[in-house]
Amino acid sequence: MSQDVANIKPSYPLFRDEDYTKLLDDKRARSEEPYDDERIEEVFQWTTTPQYQELNFKRQALTINPAKACQPLGAVLCSLGFRNTLPYVHGSQGCVAYFRTYFNRHFKEPIACVSDSMTEDAAVFGGQKNMFDGLKNAKALYKPEMMMVSTTCMAEVIGDDLNAFISNAKKEGHIEEDFPVPFAHTPSFVGSHTTGWDNMFEGVLRYFTLNHMDDKALGSNNKLNIVPGFEPYLGNYRVMHRMLRDMGVEYSLLCDPSEVLDTPADGQYRMYDGGTTQDEVKDAPNAIDTLLLQPWQLVKTKKHVKNVWHQPATEINIPMGLEWTDEFLMKVAELSGKAIPLSLEKERGRLVDMMTDSHAWLHGKRYALWGDADFVMGLSHFLLELGAEPVHILCHHANKRWKKAMEKMLGESPYGHSSTVYIGKDLWHLRSLVFTDKPDFMIGNSYGKFIQRDTLHKGKDFEVPLIRIGFPIFDRHHLHRDTTLGYEGAMYILKTLVNAVLARLDEATRGMGVSDFNYDLIR
Ligand code: SF4
Q1: Is 321 left (phi over 0), alpha (psi -120 to 50) or beta?
Q2: What is the CA 332 to chain-centroid distance, rounded?
Q3: Whose CA is nearest to atom 4 of ligand 1?
Q4: What is the pLDDT of residues 300-338, one digit of tens each?
Q5: pTM for the model
Q6: Minimal CA–CA distance to 445: which of 39, 33, 67?
Q7: Which tens digits make up the pLDDT trace of 450-472?
Q8: 152 lines ligand 1 (CB under 6 A)
């Protein structure tokens, strides 16, 4: 073999050494019955045509590369945002391994989450016994102050009743009566990770406030509640804290995993760190109002805030980009009676300055983008503000109302007239679109890298570079630390977009003596 202890190579380039390539070729010839390269190329080219796109869009019974994850994954992120809380999944172990690795790869952090490991017998007889043992053992081993329970497909298919199981576990003494165990049914065959976040969050609100409203009075704590929703950018929790503190507003950020997902390497392992306290949740109905930062994704939460807390749950858009951050801050100022400070005014002015500086490079650039409903809406709106054109806009989990609202928003801008909005479609659909109507860039999660590779395979002129903004980002480090909300977030997005344009221009113009009359030092 081509490496020894004095010359350890990583898998790349090791597997390109002759002994490995021969091994792989032999294996392929022996066991794969492969098609010849010509046939593979012929099919590849066919998949890039409008005819194939037509067939692809008729596809009904199959999803390829979904642009969403399942409900309990969202429930786990929600659970991580509460103080000394252990996410607990009632269902199969493999699902939880998937949730943990998914977050682990995105946040580059260990993720604490347990399952009660339902197997064949539980699938037949129900998982109550698993839950009795699971709650008792997890509490004894990991000493949480709260466990938040969600479910996987298996538990939902057999119809396990969390309310009954948890009540029975308490009645039979497997866990103390007063130990908080909020729960939510999170069936993965409907909705997505954002529905799961919403369900789990509503479960917490239900547990702590549904039957405890007698001593509550609207506005009595003089606070604003902020609900982030399924938020994969740590900077977004931090920018909210900063903006609200700068304004001098009393607030509760209801769900904040930014500490536990970013613990320092100082020799101490923290299974729990930071997070919203139980007292803050209990006190939340006393607030002036609750602002939902992902208004399209927090349907159940909104209902609870309105119907149980009797708060207005004032309508806002996701505070992304210039105008929608303005609107958010003005709404906070109006509700809290606090003025927007000079520091935020200056920050806004800097963003406007940046937008003016970069406008010429972004104007008219065409983008394909995908992701969660509110993120996609916020990003599309900011692209329009920059004079860029979001042409293919895809949200796998969004509903028809969202599509209509998107089309209205796009129709109101001269840069939105060539946009098409797709719901219920996956990344294999998007792949067809970028071949048949090529945008300049794609914006989305790491999974887009395979589309970029395919476009490059067709030829350099067809390549559509991927700009990584979204969730999950597995194949680049530390982007999850950045910020996409507020003026700070708009600066990050703008910087990322314009530098992608400039890097692409360098790539296209660096041919020595051929195209380098545009290979400029100063842009
Ligand atoms: S879709 Fe169902 S089976 Fe798959 S990981 Fe999610 S809960 Fe588990």
Answers
A1: left
A2: 25
A3: 95
A4: 999 999 999 999 999 999 999 999 999 999 999 999 999
A5: 0.97
A6: 67
A7: 999 999 999 999 999 999 999 99
A8: yes
